Amino acid sequence: MPNRLAQATSPYLLQHADNPVDWWPWETDAFEKARRRDVPVFLSVGYSACHWCHVMAHESFEDHDTAAYMNEHFVSVKVDREERPDVDAVYMEAVQAATGQGGWPMSVFMTPDGEPFYFGTYFPPEARHGMPSFRQVLEGVHNAWTSRRDEVGEVAGKITRDLAGRELSTGDAGTPTEETQALALLQLTRDIDPASGWFKGDTKFPPSMVIEFLLRHHARAGSVAALEMAEGLCGAMARSSLYDQVGGGFHRYVLTPRAGGPLVPHFEKMLYDNALLCRVYAHLWRATGSELARRVALETADFMVRELRTNEGGFASALDADSDDGTGRHVEGAYYVWTPAQLREVLGEEDAGLAAHYFGVTEKGTFEEGASVLQLPQHEGVFDADRIASIHTRLLAARAERPAPGRDDKVVAAWNGLAVAALAETGAYFERPDLVDAAIGAADLLVRLHMDDRARLSRTSKDGQVGSNAGVLEDYADVAEGFLALASVTGEGVWLEFAGFLLDHVIVQFTDAESGALYDTAGDAEQLIRRPQDPTDNATPSGWSAAAGALLSYAAQTGAQPHRTAAERALGVVKALGPRAPRFIGWGLAVAEALLDGPREVAIVGPGDDPATKALHRTALLATAPGAVVAVGAPESDELPLLSGRPLVNGKPAAYVCRNFTCDTPTTDPDRLGTALSG
After folding, report:
1. How many CB atoms lie within 10 A of CB 366?
2. Which Pfam families does the UniProt entry name for this protein (predicted)?
């Protein structure tokens, strides 16, 4: 019989709806139930594409004996971290503080008041490798709760007090300086492995936000080292098994095998990774003209539209790592890996040999059970491009016949905002209006479904039905970022207006008026044991840095001084953390580059259908000036403040390059505009 999760809209929660565990969603009634029964709460947090979440569910939550013990001694609460990042953040901070590490599934035992006292991540069904079994953990917690309640209460209280005391206040730190940025770059050069192009470490996540900083720093300061590092990272990722060499798009991360050989990916594909990396490669192409960057940007954009776009026009959250291998087994990576025999079946003997050589497929295999993950050679020029293109097309068609990984159809506002920005810019750079249309479709969905009549955001929707969870700071910031990118690309002022509504909420609801510090939840949101506040980047830009960037861009488009002041105060955290931990505040460093450059404001005035207007507009969009904003439209447009007071020049379309609404002499020449935006 299905449990309470059967009523959820989250695909992750629905995956547990038939568990024998008597799951509750995160709601007040669950904690009241625990209080009445005088039992602890067991909190399990994960997400639908999480491989080890599926493993623990199969091993423990689907086991009737384990479930019976849980139901007797606990109230069990299941949370989708993608729907409730605030809950995840608060308790993950406790897990990491107590154990020195974190991850998903996250397992937390707490009092009925929500105060945590015992933590972990994945627990196996039997004790192994020094790790207790999940049943042992359950029994130990139950015994402590019943026989050592005072001790449990003391631990829970201390942890809660420690968490509550971790508030950040950096409003007095001042804005980042040239020295801040230079020291951050120096630290990054120490972290890079020049031989491989990757950052050091066995687990390699795509450092998209750091690369944005490197590209912007090169554009502003002329740093050759920054550009070389960005090119090295992008080249290493694109040629490795992190990138789906057949279908485009990026997997979540790769691991360095202990015995050598190619990097081994964790095969889930996340919308946020692909949106961020699509934009990174488009920006790398803009800076260098790299054909590899162009191909990866377009293939990643096409992957998002082809495999993640929902019927409503938004973008789904993720594709699972696991899928049916054709024999009924659910296996990680089955959709993506190849054996020589499979290549021969699809391509024939001769082309299969070429494909095996090109993609690194061996008879022994480089992954599991004789299969190989695909990667590219270091030098593509020695291969026949037309023949490789034919092989690629046939492999993609054959792979489409395999059982596909499950898709999490949940539409997350923040990640769709990132996708809107990426697709709008990529479509504009490469003259792909279909990609711009896809960005507009997702933006329309966000306005129509996720924004209420007060411009308050809901975090998620699914199948056209909005979820009940309030948007957090990253939702407001990243959706505003997407709208601002659309305004620059399309010249439609409505997107600037919508961004302003969201950023007004950021100032009022998410910003500490005295310090300028930002919180991840609104002032009127549900109160947890701590109000989450994290300025460091994780898989996506922190809400803090993303808000600073959107506030700065909006101020550049409109001249709104309160928004610029809020951005500058928020960037104090970059001055504090950037030189010490640049890999964890890359987006903040990128925003700081825009602040140091102005950012520049480019007003293009002229009829939209005039080729001269289009040429100036394209030149402005392709400029590498960090964080530059672009407004295009008829002179004296009421929708775009940057165009006000900017007339045509001798009756011709013209471009004005400004900082703080103070402009240089206008030009009608795209080449002169390009020069003005490059120095």
Report:
1. 20
2. Thioredox_DsbH
